Fold this sequence. Notes:
With 162 residues, the chain is α+β, with helices and mostly antiparallel strands. It is built from 5 helices and 5 strands.
Amino acid sequence: MTQDKQSAGIDNRNDPFGEMPLPQHCFAAFVATSVALIFAISAHNGYRLTQAFEQESAVVNGKVIRFQQGQNGNLSPVVAYSFQGQSYEHPVPSKDGRYNMEALRAGSFHVRLLKSDPEVALVSNWEQPPVYWPWATIAGAAGLVSSCLLLSLIRRVVQRFM
């Protein structure tokens, strides 16, 4: 019996979380797990969006055909593009014009469209694909901390009941 207590004492010294009060230990494990899940969900959504960009969309060139009054009263270009023999028009939101000045001067834009519904389009020359690796890195680090806390908590609870 004394040998079991001594080995349990040795285990507690190797466990940096063992000195924490049990309620604080439980709360820390809950918070770390929640943070890991939040970032893992964000990373997964970013990855799926990247896959959708690659598989379900196409990029075509469009030409400015006219200008119309935008949401804030400024003139916004309307871009015409064609996909699989069909012609489409899509307005560029007023707020996007300032980032596309070179495209406005040249009169052409890149149009990313949904293959299944080519009327759904993103007209811009400053597109950036979704970035998910920072969220995955944070999720991995938080997951490691969460795993350590949970394993320590499980060891602590098992030792208490033995």
